[in-house]
């Protein structure tokens, strides 16, 4: 039976529910001989729903290595949409990224130039994009928008002309993202540079 393992997390691939039930029982029995047991909440049988598997099952998604695997709407090379069982950044991983943004405290770093912020944080942002953006990258958009909002607040504190003008600060950051997209790795993610800011 093909499977993947990382530390004590394992995914086993089964063709039928009966096969999955038998696999679960066999693993439980094997662990018991070692004085171990399956995690009661994390251990579950998941139905990998897609265009070819259209049934219903109580569990149709699971998390593994920071990704959530679930049915998603995708588009093939001919532009036709279909349902694909595929991974994207998990809610927990996205929350961890947002928590990191808060620890960076960008709005209060008005003593730094935007180039300084880029040197400090861009390598970390790039790492996230390379890992979590490998599949279904658009799932990262909402999280990265929060980083852009922090940069807007930073700009308002940094420059007097922007202090009371949130919309103007938003457009200012968007213009920089189009003019110098290499400053922050996530500025490469949008359909066009600055589009994630909602600016034109």
Write the layout of secondary structure elements.
Layout lengths: L2 E4 L2 E4 L4 H17 L28 E3 L2 E9 L5 E9 L1 H14 L9 H19 L8 H18 L7 H14 L21
Antiparallel strand pairs: 1-2, 3-4, 4-5
Helix pairs in contact: 2-4, 4-5
Which properties best describe this structure?
disordered C terminus, elongated, 5 helices, alpha+beta, 14% strand, two-stranded antiparallel sheet, three-stranded antiparallel sheet, 200 residues
How would you portray this structure in words?
This protein is of the alpha+beta class and 200 residues long. The protein has 5 helices and 5 strands, in the order ββαβββαααα. The protein has helices at 17-33, 91-104, 114-132, 141-158, 166-179, and strands at 3-6, 9-12, 62-64, 67-75, 81-89. Strands 3-4-5 form a 3-stranded antiparallel sheet. Helix 4 crosses helix 5 (166-179). The longest helix is centred in the middle third of the chain and has 19 residues, at 114-132. It is elongated, with a radius of gyration of 22 Å. The protein starts with a strand and ends in a 21-residue tail after the last helix. The relative contact order is 0.08.
């Amino acid at each position: 039976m093909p499977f993947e393992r990382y530390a004590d997390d394992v995914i086993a691939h089964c063709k039928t529910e009966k096969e999955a039930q038998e696999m679960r029982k066999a693993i439980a029995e094997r662990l018991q001989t070692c004085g171990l047991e399956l995690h009661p909440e994390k251990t579950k049988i998941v139905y990998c729903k897609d265009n070819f598997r259209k049934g219903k099952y109580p569990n149709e998604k699971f998390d593994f290595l920071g990704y959530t695997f679930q049915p998603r709407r995708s588009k093939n090379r001919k532009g036709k949409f279909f349902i694909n069982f595929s991974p994207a950044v998990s809610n927990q991983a996205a929350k961890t990224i947002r928590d990191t943004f808060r620890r960076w405290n960008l709005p209060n770093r008005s003593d730094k130039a935007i180039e300084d912020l880029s040197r400090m944080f861009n390598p970390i942002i790039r790492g996230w994009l390379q890992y979590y953006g490998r599949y279904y990258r658009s799932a990262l958009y909402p999280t990265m928008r929060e980083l852009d909002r922090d940069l807007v607040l930073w700009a308002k504190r940094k420059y007097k002309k922007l202090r009371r003008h949130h919309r103007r600060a938003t457009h200012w950051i968007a213009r920089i993202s189009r003019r110098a997209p290499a400053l922050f790795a996530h500025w490469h993610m949008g359909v066009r540079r600055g589009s994630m800011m909602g600016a034109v």
